[in-house]
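Pasting as-is:
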Amino acid sequence: MTIAASRPDYGLARPVTVRPELARLLAGGPFPEALRAAIKGSGLSLDRIQHRLQLRGITISVATLSYWQSGRRRPERPESLDALRHLEAVLRVPPNALTALLGPPRPRGRRRHTGRLLPLDVLWGSNATLSTLLTRVNTSCDGILARISQHDRCSVNAQRQLHAVRVSQVLRAEQDGADRWILVYDWEASTVDAPQIVGLRNCRLGRVAADHDAHILVAEMVFDRPLATGETLIMEYEVINPVSSHGTTADSYFRRLRLPVRDYVLEVQFDTDNLPLRCQQFSSPAGDVRMARRRNLTVSPTGEVHAVALGVGPGLFGIEWDWPPVIPSPATERLPLRQNTAVSPNTVAQSGNTSVHN
């Protein structure tokens, strides 16, 4: 399990003036209704839209456009997503406004393991420091633990810092003898102390290897006993970041998914006295952030937001947010601008930019 703090450069779509009803649909969807409203607002027929896309070098049938706006189909293939980006320009809606409503791709049939196991550090850009740290712990079990379900709950305090991440997951042993889970975490550079890792259920902290200059650590979460083939385990642990008046502002949290997971739930709890302006979930396949998908999310009045992915990975999945500007006053300390944090080969992401790997 890895937690990391380097945020992918996806960027949030910036507000553009559109009609109120279309703006509402672009903010919350669903995709078919938003597309229909955008087409209606453009005043263009589907034939004219097809023609304008052809002028841009995009070939798409009128039937496909009709299926998209009716909800019978949605763009998922790379060429369809490229066509959608050009369609946004033709319809004069903000870039990524429609793309953000798609969310993760829908599962198609039964997923099959490709047989190719990604190295533990590959989703970290083959980080040399991480590769060295991984040699100091036992990683032999990581590839034989199937990820059934994972649930991350992040707490962001009133100072806009990621205070804690509570992780709950269900694993299944594919071979006899699996007895530990590997956690990777990189914490923010402005904090000297490494985060505290606490085993809460069916696991305890084992060996830890850290590089304080690089602000990254790996740790073993050791099970109460080795698992037999086919046996499942529910485990929980928490990563607690040290409180710092100079900490970096958290603006995203994501998990690096080394192996597929059947369902992944990510929750972020904000302090009700300091809520973000907007949130988006994002996802991308391993090794290609250009294929990032985004979807707008709504923060509840109690400061909660969540995203769910089914049949996801390998790749990245997370939530990012924008804060309102800080207005300094003589009576309050000026807040820091940005914070970064991260976690392991089964990664959880946190502040500034944080990521988790599994």
